[in-house]
Amino acid sequence: xxxxxxxxxxxxxxxxxxxxxxxxxxxxxxxxxxxxxxxxxxxxxxxxxxxxxxxxxxxxxxxxxxxxxxxxxxxxxxxxxxxxxxxxxxxxxxxxxxxxxxxxxxxxxxxxxxxxxxxxxxxxxxxxxxxxxxxxxxxxxxxxxxxxxxxxxxxxxxxxxxxxxxxxxxxxxxxxxxxxxxxxxxxxxxxxxxxxxxxxxxxxxxxxxxxxxxxxxxxxxxxxxxxxxxxxxxxxxxxxxxxxxxxxxxxxxxxxxxxxxxxxxxxxxxxxxxxxxxxxxxxxxxxxxxxxxxxxxxxxxxxxxxxxxxxxxxxxxxxxxxxxxxxxxxxxxxxxxxxxxxxxxxxxxxxxxxxxxxxxxxxxxxxxxxxxxxxxxxxxxxxxxxxxxxxxxxxxxxxxxxxxxxxxxxxxxxxxxxxxxxxxxxxxxxxxxxxxxxxxxxxxxxxxxxxxxxxxxxxxxxxxxxxxxxxxxxxxxxxxxxxxxxxxxxxxxxxxxxxxxxxxxxxxxxxxxxxxxxxxxxxxxxxxxxxxxxxxxxxxxxxxxxxxxxxxxxxxxxxxxxxxxxxxxxxxxxxxxxxxxxxxxxxxxxxxxxxxxxxxxxxxxxxxxxxxxxxxxxxxxxxxxxxxxxxxxx
Length: 634
What we know:
Blueprint: H1 21-35, H2 41-44, H3 48-53, E1 55-61, H4 62-65, E2 73-76, H5 77-80, E3 93-99, H6 107-119, H7 122-130, H8 163-185, E4 199-203, H9 207-219, H10 223-229, E5 235-239, H11 244-251, E6 259-264, H12 271-288, H13 297-308, E7 309-313, H14 316-322, E8 329-331, H15 345-355, H16 357-376, H17 383-397, E9 402-407, H18 415-427, E10 445-448, H19 459-464, E11 470-475, H20 482-486, E12 493-494, E13 497-498, H21 505-522, H22 526-531, H23 536-539, E14 550-555, H24 560-581, H25 593-611, H26 620-631
């Protein structure tokens, strides 16, 4: 099995983005946007030619989606009109439309950003990633999660000297997952008492938790995935928090006899994951030991673990030492970062067990579709590249250090937190890939919520408080058919909704998707309020400055293929920003320092609980809190 290759080491780029003339030119352009009222978005949006030039469309043919060829269509809007954007979809192809006309950019701004990308070697960095060079410079590993999405028989050998071996390893694991999932779904995977496994409890943290959970939530409402999931008595749960309440809430209504625990840890040494795995083992032993027909305690425990545990890990030996049978251990590789691991067995195993391998194979195909687009499409029509350049523009030059991800789909309610996880972990860095301090702050604060819930939460701040660039995500089709069953023609008005307008719930949702970006861009001026006869004492309270930037992504429908597309788009966006900033987006030392300090705290708590040892070695503030914590008794 291929785990790494030192011959693929390369030197980190030494050039700082702040040292190139394009950086200075973009600083000047940003200053102009901040100070010239003529560049307010309400004026920029009146230029239809500008608007149409700031769009990109990716089209996936039905043949590509079904694996019959590897050709998809990438273009920018001027080529399309009056084509796909103005013709009714025939259902033979799906589209992703990116509209970034509500960003603080013009064609000239975009040219400067492309020049910066060229100067920073973006295309070269992308090719190094595609070809499996060790672009994680601090850990001397490749970054090849895109390989996990390659179909069987794909030509990776021409890019990597061991490409056939690597891709062969990937599909060997996928074959095992497919067979295991089929056996479980046929009822052939049974617990130690002979009962069918109906419950999957996934134990992990970070990407091995956030990725599978977000994909699961995204697919629950999809008709094909829901049908594939089968009977309603099958469940899948996700446990990550070291707080025992998390494990308790996720298992208290499950039958241990019918439960399979999937432990995911790349190192099989993640403290939170191991604590929950040990708790799961004790939970199973407590409930199943008395039901086993094996008298020997060790053999009985081994039988329970063999029948009720699986593992996904790089360290197969550690999983075996835990007691998990080698046939139930699914490998991952050092070239798969945890935050990108949903494409590996970390996500494919539990989600295939629940939704079927066929559904999850479509998820991989959607991700691969975007990989081909990302690596091959010209930068001017490359959706992940455009989103990444806009992120650099807003954060580094316009001074907007926060951004919102706003999917107008209830199924994507966990998607913003997943993007927050891999984006902030990847790009929250203080030095370049070569170890030189940055003269600006890299990374953004990501947050978001599904529309229209967010409108009754933080949209107040978006409209009248801080300027927060936003990405709106919407779909042409609803994931649910419930609209067709329950659309009514009620009359009356409630909270701004015109009840006499008989449209579907999805259309009502999407009316906000289309309205909110314009409301953020245009705002409402004092003169508008005067014309509307708003009382004078309320006018300043109802002024909306507008000029809030946003991008809109409109997709055809949300299914497993589209979930794969969307996730790959945002993964690649993160990578693009890291390449432009010249940082290493693939290590995460910041996630470790607190854990190291916590080891000392755990040692103190253990000594104080067991021997009554006094609190020592901490600053006065921490010492006071620890004393208060230890002195408490229920």
